[in-house]
Amino acid sequence: MKKLLLLGFCLFILSACNRNVDSNLQNYVKENLKNNKGILKLSSYKEVNWNTVYVLGPYTSTKQLDGVLKPYQKEILATGIDTDDQLCLVMLFNDKTLVSQCIFDRKTIDFERVTRFVAGTKVKPISKDSAIFSYQRPKEYTPYILQQ
Asked: Would you state the pLDDT for residue 117?
């Protein structure tokens, strides 16, 4: 019984460590959604040096990862984005180097409509200059729904 509890605790710690959530990015998005009526200017996020953003929606599979995302396959799968319909993953890159990533729960902030695909199969990057998203929140206590 003790071994089982220890194994469960170790797995919990490992999964928590792999999430790699940038709380600065998460806070930036939350604050801007509250303060800016209808527009999220992710392009103004300056905590890290970045020039491209990828938004991965629920059930993103490894087949949908392009050449920039493939080297980060383990980190992406560790978030649970491939199996969870309530998550969106926002990844900031400086050229081909991952500099920040954040998981958003679709119950509060829904990036799913921002996810784009090239030729119907690969996740499409969004340039920093284009990372300006409109959003709406139909009612209080409903998620912010972002779109491009």
From this structure: 67
Instruction: State whether the Cα torsion 92-26-63-146 is positive or negative.
Output: negative
The whole-model pTM stands at 0.81
The dihedral through the CA atoms of 130, 28, 51, 72 has a sign that is negative
| Residue type, position 5, single letter | L
62: Cβ contacts below 8 Å, ≥ 6 apart:
73, 76, 77, 82
- Can you say whether residue 25 is alpha, beta or left, with left for phi > 0 and alpha for psi between -120 and 50 degrees? alpha
**Closest to 93 (Cα-Cα) out of 69, 64, 63:** 69
Residue with tokens 């930036």: 28
Alpha-carbon distance 140 to 148, whole Å?
22
Question: Residue 26: helix, strand or coil by DSSP?
Answer: helix
